[in-house]
Request: fold
Amino acid sequence: MIDPITAVATATTAFNGIKKMVEAGQNIEQTFGQLGKWYGAVADFNEAKRQAENPPLFKKLVSSISVEEEAMNAFIQEKKLKEQETQLRELLLYMYGPNAYAELTAMRRDIRDKREKTVYAQARRQKAFLWNVAGWTGVGVLGYFIYLIFAFILTASQ
Reply:
C-alpha cells in the first residue's frame, strides 16, 4: 500500500497536469485521464490514512515520529488535497459546464466502490494473513520452548 506522503505527491503532480491541460485546451479524454490519476492518488491517501488509524502493534512500539508530528502531517496533507479538489471543481465547472462535476462525482463514487471491493480488500486480506502467520508462528515457537523446558526439567529430575 502506498504511504500518504507519496499519495499526496502523486495527487499534486496529477493536479498540476490537469491545470495545464485545461489551460491549454486539451481534449476531455486526456484531461479526465489525468483527473482519474488524481482521484486514484486521493483514494490511496484516504486508505493509507485509514490504515494509519489502526497500525500494527510493532509500528506503535517503534514509530520514528511523534503522535503530534504524524497528526500535523496528515492534517496538512488533507487540507492540501481539499484545496486541490476545490480548484478542480471550479475548473470543471468553468470548462465543461454545471453537469460535469455532478457526472464526475457519480463516476468517482462508482470507481471508489469498485476499488474498495477489489484492491483495498485484497490488501487487507494479505495483511491479515501475514499477521496471522506471524502470530501462529510465534505461538508455535513459544510452545516448542515450553516443551523444551518441561523436557529438561523431567530429565533433570530423574
Observations:
- The radius of gyration is 24 Å.
- Residues 4-124 form one domain.
